[in-house]
Amino acid sequence: MPVKRRVEQAEDLNLVPVMNLVTILIPFLLMAAEFVSLAVIDSTLPAIGPPQPVDEEPDKPPLNLSLAITEQGITVLGADLVLHPDGAPPVVEGEIRPPTVPCTSGGVCTGLKDYDWTELTRILALIKDEYPDDENVILVPDQRTKYELVVKAMDASREDSDNRGPDGEPRLLFPFVVIAGGAIN
Fold it and tell me: 76: helix, coil or strand?
């Protein structure tokens, strides 16, 4: 005798609670995710045009402090009165003045650690002692200068973290950095 089998029908799944959960989780996860992290370093472009006339005659000549970053080291320009009070050492015609802060390796700087950042900050602190009101420095990187070197030079010229003020903050040196092009080779 034939056996009658009972055919079971599948029940429909209730997916509404799962869909509600996904609908709530997707915006929450998108808000919690950090896709891009940005950091900003304030700098200004060089001024274009003739300098504005000043009625008063300054006691000291203005400080046009520039840092030329090359593969041989960093040359501090515009502060010869502070760095060489007896006069700058003579340079043979056709030769380029040696860098103020040469590479620690003695030859060509190959990376970030070859530059003497502590010595650069010390020299800039000496200049700041003589020109306490000046806050501008112009960075003149070479064409082949890497971005990390420019950022490290900006950091070294902004503040002296070894010398702290009475409030515990690092001593402020030259916080306003201008980036220019065309360093001497």
Answer: strand
Supply the DSSP symbol for 44: B
pLDDT digits (tens, 9 = 90+) for 113-138: 999 999 999 999 999 999 998 999 99
Name the residue among 178, 145, 150 with its Cα closest to residue 64: 178
The label of the residue with tokens 């520039």 reads: 66
Task: Assess contact for 89 and 81: CB atoms under 8 A.
Answer: no
101 phi/psi in degrees, rounded to 5: -120, 95
The residues near 80 (Cβ < 8 Å, ≥ 6 apart) are: 88
What are the backbone angles phi and psi of residue 99, rounded to the nearest 5°?
-65, 150
The two structure tokens encoding residue 29 = 């996860």
Among the listed residues 102, 108, 100, 113, the one whose alpha carbon sits nearest the alpha carbon of residue 144: 108
Render pLDDT for 39-88 as a digit per residue (tens, 0 to 9): 777 766 666 667 666 666 667 677 889 999 989 899 998 888 888 888 77
Which burial class, exposed, middle or buried, applies to 119 when counting CB atoms under 10 A from its CB (0-12, 13-18, 19+)? Answer: middle
| % of the chain exceeding 90 in pLDDT | 32
End-to-end CA distance of the chain: 105
